Amino acid sequence: MRPKVNQYSVAELNPSSRSLWVSALLTLLVAVAGFMLIGPAIGMLLALPFFPGTAFQFLKELSSPTQREAIFYPFFIVQGCATLVGLGLVPAWYWYRSQQENIFQRIMWRVPPLSLLVVAAIVIFFMGLNSVFIEWNANLELPEALSGFEQWARALEDAADRLTQFMTAFSSPGQFVVAMLVVAVFAGFAEELVFRGMLQPLFHRASGNIHVAIWLSAVLFSALHMQFFGFVPRVLLGVLFGYLYAWSGNLLVPMVAHFVNNGFSLLMIYLNKTQVLGMDLESTQAAPWPAVVVSTMITILLLRYYQRTFSAAKPQGQ
Question: Whole-structure pTM over 0.85, yes or no?
């Protein structure tokens, strides 16, 4: 049985292509402001009582967190508010005010369980294929004329690596659960709400081409992570999420896919650091070529199966 399609009200958006591009830009700016300013400010107010120090010391620790226990939970409170509130609820409120639509109606909870299992399998097998692009992008050397940009981008990449090391330096199962909630659940919900739920339909209406909408949303999705040496594989991941949404018409589908991608990676890192598994998912080295070939073939077959079996009639404008 195919999932019931929710006819969301994109038809009520302004018909002018120019106004649609402006709407997309304003939505993106609200999401960035929410994530960078509003969400963290709320998070700091909530987290400060849990930090054994002054507000100034807390700000200093947040800018360059260490591995000490005192900052772990306060940091994740701030990060969680930045993601859930700033990147999720703030843009959802703006969308409701500007587009007169409750974006949460795009999330249909009654879906065939098999479809979500297929989505999870697609995401996991896609990792093998994407590992080739991860290795290539991580080792990309730019021309001498772009040496200044490369130094800046490498510095951002190093800072992101240090932050990842901090966020995944689990000293207890409780810390792993908190990280899973923020990195997998909150991020999967909020990022898909904005990039697939809001921007992709706007880009589709403005351009008249679903493929342009999917790729443009994915490029912005990757660009806002500010990691140039992981830019291409994240674009491809965003494209995967975009097509899953376009085929299903259900925002829950890319949210589940995003959760599986982040959650599976986090679980593998946790199992590696607790010496349960020897696989290091933090490595940028590509999977062996036989594994890449097999995972690519399985990914293609699963995508074709998903598209034919679980695709719904598209909501208007999607």
Answer: yes
